[in-house]
Structures are given as structure tokens and as C-alpha cells.
Design goal:
The complex is a heterodimer of chains A (491) and B (99). Chain A is α+β, with helices and mostly antiparallel strands. Helix content of chain A is 55%, strand content 15%. Chain A is rod-shaped and about 115 Å long. Chain A starts with 6 loop residues before the first helix and ends with a helix. By secondary structure, chain B is of the alpha/beta class. Chain B has one domain: Transcription Regulator spoIIAA, CATH 3.30.750.24. Helices cover 42% and strands 35% of the residues of chain B. Chain B has 4 helices and 4 strands, in the order ββαβαβαα. In chain B, helix 1 packs parallel to helix 2. Chain B is globular. The chains are: A alpha+beta (491), B alpha/beta (99).
């Protein structure tokens, strides 16, 4: 062992051990930081591992340098080769990092990545070719390290990579924050300074000092940068959450939701509810009196979910209600609503609608169906069953569609149940659908149930079926009981 | 999850769907179709292995049907019972060519 206690040697020992410590800490920190982009985190992990191995190899070479023996000689050659290869890989990872922070388009990124790999291969090729001919470095008879005649060859690859980094950074400088630019600039300039310093006092390993220093600085800047971005996103997403909650409240307020809805009308009872799967949904129900003798009921489902569906739902609801309020028949209402929506629907959204108008004095129900689920109606023997009514195409799907209507006669005691596909398509953990059979069974469990109880029965049955699986679709239902003219009124 | 298998032969495009076509997977099919529909005069959608289609999926079909009305024809083949029921309820059976 040739280690002599001298000032430069002590400084070198401090630089090397300090470098190993700092790089290990950085590696541990980067591995546990969650807000970094996966790509950037991986590059830094590899980068710090490379610095660690570079320093360790350097240390190993310093320790072995000048020790006698053939085995040491082989080890020295291998260690030096690996050390210089590691330096090339470090420059390569730095280039990949530069590409990552520059946010180039896909095609350009691919080309740049290929270019950095080519430079890395050139570097390794020089080292491999140089080895047997002692071109870049060699060890004399005493196993002491010397630079070869073509030592500069080993610098060509890394220098080209640094030039590459500088060019990419400068040409994309608008996209990169000032601090990050300074950090990278530091990293590119630092080795030059180290080489200058080294020429004044050749015994001290400035290169290790500046490499570690510049890397740690860049690391801290990038982490800070990414943390700031993460904070910004968090604020943005909490703003969106607040807005969605408000939107959801506005949407719920648009639907009649105070029950009993018509406390002074004894001839019928209506109850409805909506539970969106997301904050806002595309399902809706509606009911209102067109005049003293006509109750209009709507059940509808907009294609898709979330905010787009909710916006489309609001427009559809208003257009349907406006058309209904001027006394049109259900088929007319659907035909005209379709025409209005199709006139301006570039997103090709559509809505399925069942719309019925009940003549309260007679129990005559006129209805039309635009691609919506079959309504459930109580038959003469007092059981709920699907009414396989005539279906038109969905509203908003195609211009110029004409809808047909049909008539039913409700007698006192008749009940109806309307729903959206969220009910039959509720799915349990085994991916089974709730289906219309289970829905009818839930309704038939108590045929004397009031509209509110009908909805509760179906909801309980769905909840029991779905259990722990997440509610994926909106659950929207409407129940109607027709009681007819009360005896008091008749008398 | 949805698997989209495309097979393009000059002006003929056949697309096999496997899995569920719902809110989460519909954008995927929309993207795949938009990429390949240019210049196609005959589009065939094979629904043999499709388990489920939601309204968001129907929207993509409608959009494709409209495009193909302008540049050729579209067929939907191997429609299972569940999917057929959805087509019938929503009225899509009237506007799609189902074989």
C-alpha cells in the first residue's frame, strides 16, 4: 500500500469519502421522493449509482497503483477501463436527463436518444480499441498509472455529449426554468474548471469534487422544481373538486326534489331520486304539471359520464320541458327536441328519453320512447312487468327522426316505475349484471308500496346485489302511483 | 378492458372487438377508428367477443356510422344476444346494418 500521509492525499481521501456519502444520501432521497416523474427519478437513481461506482473505482485504482504483482496489474487494467466507461455512462445519463427536461416532441426525442447512444458507443469503442495497444493509458513495470499517447480519445465521447447537452438546452431554453438551466450549465462548465484547477495542483482530485457538487446542486434544483409543479397541480385539482361539488349541487337543484311534490293533489303520487356515480352525472328525471289536468314525466340518460354528460343533460332537460310546457304531444316533444339538439351537436352526444303525459282526470297516459329502457308498469293482475313499448332512435343521434307515441289507460291503483340503465346494469364483484328480472322481483316483493317505498325496495335490492363493488353508473328512478279522482272530489 | 384487433386491406377495414366497450374504453376505439378510417369504403365491426356496450360505446358506433355513410358502408357482424338487446332498446338496430 502506497498511501502516504500528505495534504493532497488527505484532501483526496476526504473528497472521495465525502463524495461516496453525499451520493449515497442523494440516492436514498431520490428513491423515496414520490412527486418526481418516474423517468426523471430513474435517471437520477442510475446517475448517482454511476457516480458512486466511478468514485469507488477511482479509489480502488489509487489504492492499487504501484503495488507489485501480475494479478494487481490485471485488476488495475480492468478497474481503469471500468472507471472510464462509468464516466461515459454518466455523461450519457446526463444527456438523457437533458432530453427529458427539454420536453421535445416524440419523433425528435427518439432521434436525440439514438444520438446519445451513438456517442456512448463511440466512447466505449475507443476504450476497447485502446486497451490492448495502451493507447489511452498504461501501467509501467512498477504498475504505476500513466496517460497514453492518445489519452485525449477517452475525452472525445464525454465532451461531445456535453456539447450535445449544451446545444439541446440552448435550443429549448424557453421551455426550461431558469434555475434548471443554471444547474445544467453548472454541470457542463464544472469539468472544465476542474481540469484547469487540476493543471495548477495535479495531485488533488478536483474532478470528483466538482462532479459531485454539480450533480447534487442539479438534483436539489430539479427536486424543488418538480415539488413546485406538484403543489401547483394539487391546488388546481382542489379547485376542480370545489367546482365539481358546486356543479353537482346545481344539477341536483335543477331536478324537482322536494317531496311530496304535489301535496294538494290526491289523484296521484310521484317520487323520484338520482344518485350520480361521479360528482355530476348524465342521468335525469323530471316531472311537472303542464296544466291542471296534465302531468309530464321524463326519464333520460345522456351518453357518457362526468362534466360533458352533465352539460348536455342540462340543455336536454330545458329543451324537453320548454317543448312540453307549450302543450305538445310526447311524440312532437321528442321530434322537436331532437331537431333542436341535432342543429348544434358536433360532439355527437345523444340522450335516451322516455317521456309520458298523464291526463289526471281520465288516467290516459300518452308516451313516447327515444331509445330509453322499457318502462315498468303494473298489469291488471297487480304485478309489475316490463312494458315493451315502441322505440325510436336516441335523441341527438340523427337529424330528422320522427317519433311515435302510444297510449295506456291507468286505473286507480295503477303504478309505474321508470329508471335508467344504471339499475339493470349495476354490477357485482363477479361482473354479473343486476338485470331487469331482479329489478321486477324487488318491485313485486311489495305491490302495495308507495312510490317512495318502490324506489327504496329497488335500491336496497341493488345495494345487496352489488355489495362492495363500486357503483359505476348513475342510479336514477321515478315511481308513480295513479289514484284517480278521489271520492271526496267526486262527491 | 377492451381489445381492438384491426385488419386493413386497401379500402376494407375489419375491426374485432373483445371485452367491454364503455366510458373508459370508448375513447380507445374512437382513436383506433379515427387513425384507420381514412379512405375506407367498407368497414366491418366484429362483436363476437364483445361482452358489453354502454352509451359511450354507442356514441362511437354512431360516429363511425355517420362517417361511413359519407364514404362507403359499415356492417356490424356477430352480434350477441346482450348487445342486440341494447341495440334494440336504443333504436340503434334501425340505423346500423347488423348481419
Amino acid at each position: 500500500m502506497q498511501f502516504v500521509f500528505s495534504v493532497p492525499n488527505l484532501i483526496n481521501a476526504l473528497l472521495i469519502s465525502g463524495g461516496i456519502g453525499v451520493c449515497t444520501l442523494c440516492f436514498l432521497q431520490i428513491s423515496s421522493s414520490r412527486h418526481l416523474k418516474k423517468e426523471v427519478r430513474m435517471y437520477f437513481q442510475v446517475f448517482f449509482l454511476l457516480i458512486l461506482s466511478y468514485i469507488s473505482l477511482h479509489l480502488a485504482r489509487q489504492i492499487m497503483d504501484g503495488l507489485p504483482g501480475g494479478a494487481v496489474r490485471t485488476a488495475l487494467y480492468i478497474t481503469t477501463f471500468l472507471e472510464m466507461t462509468a464516466a461515459g455512462f454518466m455523461a450519457h445519463i446526463m444527456s438523457l436527463l437533458v432530453i427529458a427536461v427539454s420536453r421535445l416532441n416524440k419523433k425528435l426525442t427518439a432521434r436525440m436518444v439514438v444520438l446519445t447512444y451513438t456517442l456512448l458507443l463511440i466512447h466505449i469503442a475507443f476504450l476497447v480499441i485502446g486497451w490492448p495497444f495502451d493507447l489511452i493509458y498504461y501501467f509501467d513495470a512498477d504498475n504505476v498509472y500513466h496517460r497514453g499517447t492518445y489519452y485525449l480519445l477517452s475525452n472525445i465521447g464525454p465532451i461531445l455529449m456535453l456539447v450535445f447537452d449544451a446545444v439541446v438546452l440552448l435550443s429549448n431554453s424557453k421551455k426550461i426554468s431558469k434555475k434548471v438551466k443554471i444547474a445544467f450549465g453548472n454541470y457542463i462548465i464544472a469539468p472544465i474548471i476542474a481540469i484547469l484547477l487540476q493543471s495548477f495542483s495535479p495531485k488533488i482530485q478536483y474532478i470528483i469534487f466538482v462532479t459531485v457538487g454539480a450533480s447534487v446542486y442539479m438534483f436539489s434544483v430539479i427536486i424543488e422544481n418538480q415539488n413546485a409543479e406538484y403543489e401547483k397541480q394539487k391546488i388546481e385539482s382542489s379547485r376542480i373538486d370545489t367546482e365539481l361539488t358546486m356543479a353537482s349541487a346545481i344539477q341536483a337543484d335543477m331536478l324537482p326534489n322536494i317531496f311530496p311534490a304535489f301535496p294538494d293533489r290526491a289523484e296521484f303520487d310521484v317520487y323520484a331520486s338520482m344518485n350520480p356515480a361521479k360528482e355530476v352525472g348524465g342521468d335525469f328525471y323530471d316531472f311537472f304539471l303542464v296544466d291542471d289536468d296534465h302531468l309530464c314525466m321524463v326519464m333520460a340518460d345522456v351518453s357518457g359520464k362526468g362534466v360533458p354528460a352533465a352539460l348536455f343533460m342540462m340543455a336536454s332537460k330545458i329543451i324537453l320541458a320548454n317543448n312540453a310546457m307549450i302543450g305538445k304531444t310526447p311524440a312532437q316533444i321528442l321530434t322537436d327536441t331532437n331537431a333542436a339538439i341535432c342543429s348544434n351537436n358536433r360532439e355527437e352526444m345523444f340522450v335516451t328519453v322516455w317521456l309520458g303525459i298523464l291526463e289526471i282526470s281520465t288516467g290516459r297516459l300518452t308516451a313516447a320512447n327515444a331509445g330509453h329502457e322499457y318502462p315498468v308498469i303494473m298489469n291488471e293482475s297487480g304485478e309489475f312487468e316490463l312494458l315493451k313499448d315502441k322505440h325510436g332512435f336516441v335523441i341527438g343521434g340523427m337529424d330528422g327522426v320522427k317519433y311515435k307515441e302510444y297510449e295506456l289507460k291507468l286505473t286507480p291503483g295503477s303504478k309505474m316505475f321508470l329508471y335508467t340503465d344504471g339499475v339493470p346494469e349495476a354490477t357485482n364483484e363477479n361482473k354479473e349484471l343486476f338485470g331487469t328480472e331482479r329489478m321486477l322481483a324487488a318491485l313485486n316483493k311489495n305491490t302495495k308500496a308507495s312510490p317512495e317505498e318502490m324506489l327504496n325496495n329497488v335500491r336496497h335490492s341493488v345495494d345487496e346485489f352489488v355489495k362492495d363493488a363500486e357503483q359505476f353508473d348513475d342510479l336514477t328512478m321515478l315511481g308513480l302511483e295513479y289514484k284517480g279522482k278521489s271520492e271526496i272530489l267526486e262527491g | 378492458m377492451l381489445n381492438v384487433l384491426k385488419n386493413k386491406d386497401n379500402d376494407f377495414l375489419s375491426v374485432s372487438l373483445e371485452g367491454r366497450l364503455d366510458t373508459t374504453t370508448a375513447p380507445q376505439l374512437e382513436k383506433e377508428l379515427n387513425e384507420s378510417i381514412e379512405g375506407v369504403t367498407s368497414l366491418t365491426l366484429d362483436m363476437n367477443k364483445l361482452d358489453y356496450i354502454s352509451s359511450a360505446g354507442l356514441r362511437v358506433l354512431l360516429s363511425a356510422q355517420k362517417k361511413m355513410n359519407a364514404q362507403g358502408s359499415m356492417r356490424v357482424i356477430n352480434v350477441g344476444e346482450t348487445i342486440m338487446e341494447i341495440f334494440e332498446v336504443t333504436g340503434f338496430s334501425d340505423i346500423l346494418t347488423i348481419e
